[in-house]
Amino acid sequence: MRRAAVAVAATAMAVSLAACGSAKEADGGSDSSKDAAAKKGDSIKVGLLLPENQTARYEKFDRVLIEKQIKELTNNKGEVVYANAKQDATVQNQQVETMITNEVDVLILDAVDAKAIANSVKKAKDAGIPVVAYDRLAEGPIDAYTSFDNEQVGKTQGEALLKALGDKAKDGQIVMMNGSITDPNAALFKKGAHSVLDGKVKVGKEYDTKEWKPENANKNMEGAISALGKDKIVGVYSANDGMAGGIITALKAGGFDKLPPVTGQDAELAGVQRIVAGEQYMSVYKPYAPEAEAAAKMAVALAHGESLDSVAKDKVDSPTTKGVPSVLVPVVSLTQDNIKDTVIKDGVYTVNEICTGKFKAACDKLGLK
Predict the structure, then answer these.
(1) pTM of the full structure
(2) What is the mean pLDDT of residues 271-299?
């Protein structure tokens, strides 16, 4: 209540001072009052909580992009307080407590476990700290949300797998390697994939992979090969690139003469390199810059007590909160055909980063020079 009252008072004062400044400008006077108000408003503290560091995107892209955006939106006066939970939901709950103690003005939260974080979100809300759910739809009284259309991600993966299988789709069975059940996005990826694949392929084995870990996907894939037989597996739906790496290792060890098509997500460097080499069929490229920009804009607006109408054009319902102002970013199916026009064009990776030693010949063949 105290924080909310201070925020309202500060906003009212800023409006009053800005109006005063405008009047002075009209009279040929100084704009110093307006500048002083803006300066005070820019000095905000943003708590950034990311879920894990197994997936390369969080440290390499999300953190860097959000910090950059916050600086730009606050004239380099905004402070970002960062913590990574390393896939531990209990640790992340403790990190929220720490952020509350440190009196951050707003939280950007990518939940390890969407359900387990709900009570911590409520504590933040009770302390007058608005919460932006980032990438995963956390439960509890969140104020805003940004992610990708996650059901569409699964559809994109399923459609790509069907395209790769062609008329061989009915010749055998596929293995589905879904993500962690603690991640609400994983359920949406699965739903989207099934909406495309069901009735067109036979699912021989399906797994919900604990903690998204590649080593767990590897063990699951070994089990699938043992249960189904290598001659019966025609394709693998993998929910992300990290797991695709573990799956492909298992396929190679399982004695496949030719690897079946394997899907992925996140356009990780190792995944892009496997696509170049022909080991992984596709990944889902999710442009992180617009997602990070949306999170930063919503966080700064909420810290200033401003409306999100100009930023968030969508509404999303969580199991606990209805009509959450949201920004949903579209995704792209990444294959050998469009590497140059996606991750290279957007500056995610350079040709030199992708086309290292053992990938150089494959890159040359694809015209990546």
Answers:
(1) 0.77
(2) 97
